[in-house]
Structure formats: structure tokens, C-alpha cells
Design a protein that fits this description.
By secondary structure, the chain is α+β, with helices and mostly antiparallel strands. Helix content is 26%, strand content 36%. 31% of the residues are buried.
């Protein structure tokens, strides 16, 4: 069975669906989400993507990210993937959305996403899915901001692109 993504226009209106790999090869704009989970001391839970992921393998990124399936609400998809990837269930809320375009592999895979960003808080110990995640860690936001600047190749493109906005929203919480 081919995994599909929801194709959207620049206003996030659905215009169709396409196989996930095909959408990334052709650079078609599609819906995605990124989840940022903070613990009660304000540290962000990062995941290191599994080494055999089809792109951005081994890079550090936000707590969870993926695509809703056709017919699936984005919030429900974000909750589903948070459990599937990190074994965490908590309340999350939509904070902002952004669009980005980035080449993510030497083979020409392109992320062209309308990304919905969700924040949540949890002190649960992650139970990572090794097919998705190779490691996790909690980091202070200031430390992460500094490390992204000096080691940008250690991080996913979407995290680097949205991080300043995440910092702005985060400062209102902690």
C-alpha cells in the first residue's frame, strides 16, 4: 500500500492527494505537522531520526513530525504520530503554521510543506519506536539555539527554518 499525502495550495486548501515519495520527488506542496513537547522545566524534547529514514537520517529534530493521511484531521494525525514515534500521549495545541521548501537529500528529495506546528507539555519518559527514532534528549531552548548556529548540519531543515518562530512562541509560555 502506497502511503499518501494531502496536496494543498498556498492557503492550505486541499487540492488532491499523491504518494508520499512521489510528492517529495516532484516537490509538490503538501500538508505536514511538527510537534514540540516541553517538559515541566521548559526543556524541549528532541528526537534523533533513525539512521535508515529516507531523508534527514540521523539528524536531530523536534519531538515528532509527519503528514496527515487523506481524510485525517491534522490534530488527530499529530497525536497519532506522537504516540507511534515517541510513545507519548499528551494534550497538544496548534500554535502556528508556516510553509517551506528545502532539498533534503543528495538524491533530490524536496520538502515542500505547509507545516502545522503544535506545542504540548509532558514529563512522560519517551518509549521510542526504533524504526523512527534512534535517540532522544531534552535541551534548554537557549542551548539549542546556540547549537543550531554552530552545528547546523546536525539538525533537520524544517527545525532550522521554524526555530526562531518557535522561540518567539515558547518565550510566551516559559
Amino acid at each position: 500500500m502506497i502511503e499518501k499525502v494531502i496536496l494543498v495550495d498556498v492557503n492550505d486548501r486541499e487540492i488532491g492527494e499523491m504518494g508520499k515519495m512521489e510528492a517529495h520527488l516532484e516537490g509538490k506542496l503538501h500538508r505536514a505537522f511538527s510537534v514540540f513537547i516541553f517538559n515541566s522545566t521548559g526543556e524541549l524534547l528532541l528526537q534523533q531520526r533513525a539512521d535508515d529514514k529516507y531523508h534527514s537520517a540521523g539528524k536531530w529534530t523536534n519531538t515528532c513530525c509527519s503528514h496527515p493521511r487523506p481524510g485525517e484531521e491534522t490534530l488527530k494525525a499529530a497525536n497519532r504520530r506522537l504516540i507511534e514515534e515517541m510513545g507519548i500521549h499528551c494534550n497538544i495545541k496548534h500554535v502556528f503554521s508556516f510553509q517551506y521548501l528545502a532539498e533534503v537529500t543528495a538524491q533530490g528529495l524536496i520538502e515542500n510543506e505547509y507545516d502545522h506546528v503544535f506545542f504540548g507539555e509532558s514529563d512522560q519518559v519517551p518509549a521510542i519506536n526504533p524504526a523512527e527514532v534512534s535517540a532522544y534528549k531534552y535541551v534548554k531552548m537557549a542551548d539549542l539555539s546556540h547549537d543550531i548556529k554552530i552545528n547546523p548540519d546536525h539538525y533537520t531543515e524544517w527545525l532550522k527554518i521554524c526555530f526562531d518562530r518557535v522561540m518567539e512562541q515558547y518565550s510566551g509560555l516559559y
